[in-house]
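Sanity check

After download, print the first record. It should look like this:
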Amino acid sequence: MKVDIKIDGQYQEPLAVIYTAVLSDEVNSAVKKLSESPSGDIITAFREDSAEILEPDDIYRIYAEGQKVLAVTDKGIFQIRMRLYQLEEKLGNQKFARISHSEIINLKKTTHFDLSIAGTILVKMKNGESTYVSRRYVSKIKDILGI
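Expected structure tokens:
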């Protein structure tokens, strides 16, 4: 791929334009890479007096408790200084799903979904924890799971 960079003071933020004869995998990959925000892959979390960078793949679930938003990882529970809707947007991909007004789970960190309970779904996580899908989100989770 040929790359051309032009410095122009009229642009407040970078603008990328791709000219191509056909939409190829290389072009799609470039578009995806350019569209990603620089901090989109990390979440800053806090425990005691220290800040730590959490990789989304390490997070089991994120939930609100009182006025705090907490993330559960193998390293423990961390506080995140973002609202759940902001985290949902930031993590908005096929790995994470909102299961209630106060909780988001990492679908890759689940072992199974128990559908035997009427009106809700029991979710078993790989770390041994269990949580429930609220009635409001049951149809959304079933759509994600293809059932």
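If your output differs, re-run the checksum step. Summary of this record's structure: The helical segments are 25-35, 84-90, 138-145.
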